[in-house]
Amino acid sequence: MIFRAATADPTDIDRALTHPADGPVEALAADRIREELAAGRLRPEWIWFAQAEDGEVLGRALWWGREDSERPVALDCLQVRGVADPAAVAAGLLAAGHTAFGTLPLYDLSLPRDWRARPDVAEAVAWRREAARRAGLTNGIERLRYEWTPAAGTREPTGRLRFREGTDEEFVEAFARVSAGSLDVHTRTSLRSMDAGQLAREDVEFYLDCPGERSWWRLAELPDGTLAGLAVPSATPYHRNVGYLGVVPEQRGKGLIDEILAEITRFHAGHGARRVTATTDTVNAPMAAAFDRAGYEVTEVRLVLEAPSPA
User: Fold this and answer.
1) Are the C-beta atoms of 221 and 162 separated by less than 8 Å?
2) pLDDT (tens digit, 9 = 90+) per residue, 202-236?
3) Does pTM top 0.85 for this prediction?
4) Are 2-137 and 150-306 equal in CATH topology?
5) Disulfide: which of 161, 163, 176, 307 matches 200 by Cβ 3.0-4.6 Å?
6) How far apart are the C-alpha atoms of 50 and 162, rounded to whole Å?
7) Burial letters 242-260, b for 16+ CB under 10 A, else e
8) Domain covering 2-137: architecture
């Protein structure tokens, strides 16, 4: 078995484009690959093949990154066919890519909500998950992907909160305060290896690096000026999204998360957004319930496989 990037042969990109994109787990079709290559979010050195000795392509892995990324951010597509042990071939393919990149990008699988009840999907997920585990992506987080459209409408402000702009330092403080007691898996995991202030600065840097504008961010306050939480509307390369929102521990349980989510939704809707996406961990039941109340609908499940955080 040969594992290599799509850089050695002028026909490699054509081979990546013509590889069948069928199967129970979503794969990138040719038109999408062309679009991502043109935008610089896919690159030949991030497209890898598992190839038999006779040249037959038995698998492909496509890693995705932002236009300005030096290294890929996530594995976007993994396919293996025509072999007895797809997990072994896929694990070798991922390991080869990881070695070349010098990093272990996460693997983001898009799945139907009922994937566990569908044997073909469950089997396809099982060998991919095993391959990821063998390649070092041993942690798994399952998230619900939500979507808002104008048909769901928006809620009018109630006056319970006011929203204002803030400095980066104010947002660092707000991120740190809302991280206490968070049900978000990434937050809880990160706080095992760093303090709340360090994590808050990482969060601020992450959202500054997203396609959304810094001027969109708002601190949420009670009418007397007491900090209640924060609202960080953001965007992806494809559409607007919720970004980040939270309520400080002492103000939880009062329904203020609905007020903050409504502010983000109104903001995007007011700028003409026809779709707003959001994700939350399946274990974060209060946040999922808030999305449900706000008219967001679950469109898919995201299974995110990643390397453990440094101790």
Assistant:
1) yes
2) 999 999 999 999 999 999 999 999 999 999 999 99
3) yes
4) yes
5) 176
6) 55
7) bbbbbbbeebbeeebbbbb
8) 3-Layer(aba) Sandwich (3.40)
